[in-house]
Design a protein that fits this description.
The protein is of the alpha+beta class. Helices cover 44% and strands 20% of the residues. It has two domains: 76 residues; 58 residues, Head domain of nucleotide exchange factor GrpE (Nucleotide Exchange Factor Grpe, Chain A, domain 2, Roll), CATH 2.30.22.10.
Length: 163
């Protein structure tokens, strides 16, 4: 019987099985899926970062626009305050005017002549008068200053004296 038994001389020795790698070979499609998944995750993260950056820029632009608008309106505010002080008939408007400015985030910097100490962060000294003391006190307010949302928008223009 030729096909059933092979002679020992014709038989090839069995080869030992080669060591299999610890991880089976990755299917090329699985590798492509993993690569595309990583690309998608990076793209989503980049987009989210971009969206946040645009929101920050938009907030900054709005804030700058509001500040610029309020700054341009200060001469009108000054003139309206002068009109209220000059014409007593406008006095009822003063409270409404002040309330509106406060609601907008605009606040007048306090500067009472003879009482308020000069603060270079809030006041702009135009002249300095000699006095007997060591403290620099506001002698006269030439132009009111304003804070907008807690930051100095325009310093108060003052004359200073030593008291």
């Amino acid at each position: 019987m030729i096909g059933k038994n092979k002679s020992a001389a014709g038989a090839q020795p069995a080869q030992p099985a080669q060591a299999q790698p610890a991880e089976p070979a990755v299917n090329p499609l699985e590798a492509k899926v993993a690569e595309l998944t990583n690309d998608l995750q990076r793209t989503r993260a980049d987009f989210e970062n971009f969206r946040k950056q645009i929101e920050l820029r938009e907030t900054a632009v709005k804030s700058n626009a509001k500040t610029a608008t309020v700054l341009k309106m200060l001469p009108l505010v000054d003139n309206f305050a002068l009109a209220i002080a000059t014409y007593r008939e406008l006095a009822p408007l003063a409270k409404t005017f002040e309330k509106t400015l406060t609601e907008l985030g605009l606040q007048q910097i306090p500067a009472i002549p003879g009482q308020t100490e000069f603060n270079p962060d809030l006041h702009e000294a135009i002249s300095m008068e000699d006095g007997d003391g060591e403290k620099e006190i506001i002698a006269e307010v030439l132009r009111p200053g304003y804070l907008y949302e807690g930051a100095v928008l325009r310093p108060t223009m003052v004359k200073v004296t030593k008291a």
